[in-house]
Amino acid sequence: MSDTPWTIERIRDALGNPTLAQRFLSEINKAPAHELLTVFVKWQRIAEDTVASVERGHDLAEYDVRAEQLPGEWVDATDRVQADAERIRRRGAA
What share of the chain is helix, strand, coil (3-state, %, to 5)? Predict the structure, then answer.
């Protein structure tokens, strides 16, 4: 993790998704003065989690490039996710 201080600009950039970044900017711009720090800290945590997830993804991709088994224990939830998606489609939500 970088020692660079978190700023509004850094949080926006770390979010990586234009829609999410716009939501952050909207919330921070509309927050009353007494809520600014709370909103900032909320989005800083989201940005930190996003950066950590991206870094973890890059680390795991290196295993794939080397055709190695991923570290840790992994649960294949493909069947459950597909069944959930099918139930949602049947209800007309998708």
Answer: 70, 0, 30
